[in-house]
Automatic annotation (TrEMBL):
Lineage of source species: Bacteria, Pseudomonadati, Pseudomonadota, Alphaproteobacteria, Rhodobacterales
Protein source organism: Pacificitalea manganoxidans
Record protein name field: VOC domain-containing protein
InterPro entries noted in UniProt: Glyas_Bleomycin-R_OHBP_Dase, VOC_core
VOC domain span: 17-161
Residue ranges of the TM segments: none
SUPFAM superfamilies on file: Glyoxalase/Bleomycin resistance protein/Dihydroxybiphenyl dioxygenase
Length: 179
């Protein structure tokens, strides 16, 4: 049996833990500054480059201008890329077929949202404002998730960290489903 670095059994021979999610942004430096101020991120590394995008199986007509890897809390990391040759005017939204948002677990959602807003993020209002969907939380005692849009358009969800009792319940549910 293959075990992850966290001691969990891996289902499948070559699949491990998620390490990072890459975001392409229109302004690398502004996005990194926002993540530091608005999400409490820490820079792991920054590189300015002028090379082609490596590993692409299809021809990609762009080059990396700058990339930074950021850690937020103890979870996965974000890689922030600025690419030349990208001609997109708007960011992905909830209905797009790609990663539509990332979630920040927090002990204090109100403070996290206030920090995000103070750094220049926009809080989305309504039941899941972009599409008008209603999401009902199924975990009594936890705050409803809140959503914000980063200055470049990416969406962040702020969710209250489950209590130890709630986390054990969720883990048991996953085990029963075989997930």
């Amino acid at each position: 049996m293959i075990m992850s670095k966290h001691g969990a059994a891996l289902r499948g021979a070559a699949i491990g833990d998620v390490d990072h999610v890459a975001l392409t942004v229109p302004d690398h430096d502004a996005a990194v500054a926002f993540c530091l101020a608005g999400l409490g991120a820490e820079v792991q590394y920054t590189r300015a480059q002028g090379q082609s995008v490596a590993g692409a199986e299809e021809a990609v007509d762009c080059a990396i201008r700058a990339v930074s890897r950021l850690r937020i809390g103890t979870g996965l990391m974000l890689e922030i890329y600025e690419l030349s040759g990208i001609h997109r005017e708007i960011a992905a939204d909830f209905g797009d077929w790609e990663i539509s948002r990332f979630t920040i677990l927090t002990e204090d959602p109100d403070s996290a949202v206030a920090r995000f807003r103070a750094a220049g993020g926009r809080i989305l209002t309504g039941a899941l404002a972009p599409r008008g969907q209603v999401i009902r939380h199924s975990h009594p005692g936890r705050a409803q998730p809140r959503y914000g849009r980063c200055p470049w358009g990416s969406i962040v969800e702020f969710t209250e960290r489950p209590s130890a009792c709630g986390a054990a319940h969720l883990s048991a549910e996953r085990d029963l489903r075989g997930a």
